[in-house]
Amino acid sequence: MAKRRGGSTAAYEMMIIVLLFVMQAAFQSQITPLGVVDEALALLFVPSFCLWYIRKGHRLKVNRSLIFFLVFLGIFWIFGWISTAVNHYQPMTNVLKDAYANLKFFFAMGLGYTMFDGCRKEPLENRRGRTVFWIVLNLVIFVMFAAMVADQIFHISDGETRWVTQVWCSSLTYESYSFLVANAIFLVAVVMRFYEYYDRAILIPLIELLYVIYGTRRVKGIVMTFVILVLYFIFLKKGEKKKILINLVLFFGGIGAAALAVFQMFYYYVALGTESARAVLAMGGPYLAKIYFPLGTGWATYGSAFSIHPYSEVYNITGMNVVWGLSEQYDMFISDTFWPMILGQTGVFGFLAYLAAFVILLSWVWKRRGKKPSLFVPIVLLILYILVMSTGESAFVSPMAVSMGFWIGCMMSETDRRKTKIYRSLDGALADAKDSSVKPVQRYQGADDFNIDWTFDEEPGENPRVTKKYGRGEHGR
Q1: 1, 171, 296, 449 from 413: Cα distances, Å
Q2: What integer pLDDT is reported at residue 417 of this predicted model?
Q3: Among 102, 136, 203, 433, which residue carries the largest CB count within 10 Å?
Q4: How confident is the model at residue 277 (pLDDT cuts 50, 70, 90)?
């Protein structure tokens, strides 16, 4: 975390953090200390932000969207605490853990955004650091792939048979199938960042990870497999000609993935009715927001992993304690929800504030479209998967959300830094031109498409104009 560390050091730091996230997802049920890796790393945002702020000094500019984002996030958090103070359902230890868990995704984003801002070079621009990172990443992915192949053949893990064909579903060493899918999606996003440097070579680890995802036989994993293929062939390889076969596969694959997702949602939320824990939790959120209006039930009381021990009184009040998967004796599906949890715990106003903060986050992602695909596509992939997670998991408060938030922050920060470096180089060029006969009339617009009009001092009536477009290889006169 030094002020001006080199690119190789930064690449190694980034690699170590990625490996810690991967190890936590894979071995937290076997190695207990790994279970707190996500919370501990997210807390590093505090010192990282302080160093980043000192480094920026007077040059730090806070835009309006950031202010609104922090205000909305603060309103959400405050309503959670007010609801907790009014109802007093859970002990303070559970309350503090849940209150922090609802912010750790954003802390992880902040850590990724600020941690590498003071490097002399971008972490992956250093050849030595990038090469080591790439080799280690491929080794980790190959081990996952080999373990999945072995488990599919010999049924080593505590898997299960699934679907009509009774195929084997592998969970390997992971606590749940969801963790394995999320970890593989996270690694796909990391691999996609290397497309800028290794081009089609990333196909090997991508194919291995897609096999790992498919090996779980989870619907969300199969849907995301199609999303990954679309992002790779349509956006990451933007500008290259696509073969007709690939287009047909993407088209029919999209139809199949969409149909599968709709069937899954219908099955859990409509067909099973009140026999489904997810459907009951989805109905319970609006119900609690109504009877506790304008507040909610408070932190660690509903749909949260911290509402289990001790068992929240809210489940007894609403009668959910008799639902399979939500009872005190069998609580396996208590945290299989997200948006209803936010609505139930913080109330209508807390929910709307959280939703507004998330919309602002989406606007930040949207503004980075058209930038370098190897930076933009990983962000889109992770945001899409978190949204998919939110339909049946704890999503933004899940341990895997921290790793995804960290990588999103890294990609957004590098996008902004590259834009700033171009701005500075142009500022220097414009300063050099002040005393010459060339006078800039219009400066620049955007980060990737700069339009500069130069006016040459000539005789009256003869004032030729030359427009140069930089950033996309276009030079016109």
Answers
A1: 16, 34, 35, 19
A2: 77
A3: 102
A4: confident
d(CA 208, CA 195): 16
Q: Distance of alpha carbon 303 from its chain centroid, rounded?
A: 21
Distance CA 27, CA 199 (A): 32
Give the start-to-end residue ranges of the domains of the chain: 7-421, 438-477
CA distance 191 to 322: 45
pTM: 0.82
- 183: which residues sit within 8 A by CB, 6+ positions away? 21, 22, 25, 26, 174, 400, 403
In terms of average pLDDT, the best of 44-53, 97-106, 208-217, 429-438 is 97-106
Residue 189 makes CB contacts below 8 A (sequence gap 6+) with 378, 381, 382, 404, 407
Which single residue is written with the structure tokens 């899409």? 384
Burial annotation 442-473 (CB, 10 A radius, 16+ → b, else e): eebeebeebebeeeeeeeeeeeeeeeeebeee
Backbone angles phi, psi at 315, to 5 degrees: -65, -35
Among 225, 227, 231, CA closest to 208? 225
Q: Which pair of tokens denotes residue 321?
A: 């304690």
Report the 3 state secondary structure along 142-207: HHHHHHHHHHHHHCCCCCEEECCCCEEECCCCCCCHHHHHHHHHHHHHHHHHCHHHHHHHHHHHHH
Contact 15, 133 (CB under 8 A): yes
Would you call 272 helix, strand, or coil by DSSP? coil
Q: Are 151 and 157 in contact (CB under 8 A)?
A: yes
- 171 in Cβ contact with 158 (< 8 Å): yes
Structure tokens at 228: 């990954």
Confidence class of residue 59 from pLDDT cuts 50, 70 and 90? low
Higher-scoring residue by pLDDT: 245, 404 = 404
3-class SS shares of the chain: helix, strand, coil, % to 5? 70, 5, 25
Q: How far apart are CA 215 and CA 113, in angstroms?
A: 33
Residue 442 has φ and ψ, to the nearest 5°, of: -120, 135
Closest CA to 49 of 99, 119, 108, 125: 108
